[in-house]
Amino acid sequence: VIIASNFKTNHTRESTKEFVQTVSDFVDLQDIKDEVLIFPSAPSLDAFVLPSNVSIGAQNAYPVKSGSFTGEIGSQQLDEFGVKMLLIGHSERRHILKESNALIEQKYNFYKELGYKIVFCIGEPLEVREKGIQEVIDYNLAQLENIDLGYEHLIIAYEPVWAIGTGVSATKQQIEQTHQILRQSIKAPLLYGGSVKVANLKEILSIPNVDGVLVGTASWNVEEFQKMIAIAKEMK
Ligand code: PGA
């Protein structure tokens, strides 16, 4: 099982360090074998000492080693911390930061070439969900159109936009149906994201074709995140 935490614009350098240390100790002490992924904000990245199944990734990076791209970070800055994992295509970057499919593809190809583990996010807005399952699938597959799905370090996160940060996750039936159909095209691990929390994690992880979760809001509190890791361990 893969349990991933997306900090978004939360936590400071100091509290990130504490969070990563607490989670690492927990993973060691509880003998956790599941994969734990943490995406802190860029200023809080560091060369953390981690258990082998815990990884730190960047929430965003520009498809370049270095150069003149004000406000962006390149692979050289990530190399300094040994970061080899990246979140690409998150709905907040697509919709709030207006990232195009073309830029997302460039990022994917650049960081794939460098061997990064990539958590690639897809997901439909509410107006698409309301049109029915076929439209939902078409929309999600279109976001993967020029993405090499055979890449060995690829993880896909299905995150319906209307379920992110709203406190209302997709229903068990919606997740089950969507993941089942997506699975026909996607062999990579398939995560669900969108208002996952301690209270619904067990149910979500028990759905066929859900290989893990990408958690925002409910993961920022380290005790809650540890509870989620513990639930994932029990599920096996
Ligand atoms: P949420 O965010 O858990 O707060 O809904 C999920 C995500 O954006 O990855």
N-to-C terminal Cα separation, in Å?
8 Å
**What is the N-to-C succession of helices and strands?**
EHEEHEHHEHHEHEHEH
Q: Which cofactors or ions or other ligands sit in this model?
A: 2-phosphoglycolic acid
Instruction: Give the number of helices.
Output: 9
In what order do the strands lie side by side in the largest sheet? Answer: 3-2-1-8-7-6-5-4
Query: What is the averaged pLDDT score?
Result: 97
Strand proportion: 15-25%
Q: Pick out the low-confidence regions.
A: none
**Biggest sheet, open or closed, and with what strands and sense?**
8 strands, parallel
Assign the structural class, choosing from mainly alpha, mainly beta, alpha/beta, alpha+beta, or little secondary structure. alpha/beta
| Residues in helix, % | 25-40%
Shape: globular
How many extended strands? 8
- Determine Rg (CA atoms, Å): 17 Å
What does this protein structure show overall?
By secondary structure, the protein is an alpha/beta fold. Helix content is 37%, strand content 15%. The chain has helices at residues 13-29, 75-79, 91-95, 101-113, 126-129, 133-142, 172-183, 198-205, 222-234; strands spanning 2-6, 35-39, 54-56, 85-88, 117-122, 154-158, 190-193, 212-215. It has an eight-stranded parallel beta sheet with strand order 3-2-1-8-7-6-5-4, with helices on one face. It is globular and about 45 Å long. 2-phosphoglycolic acid binds next to β8.
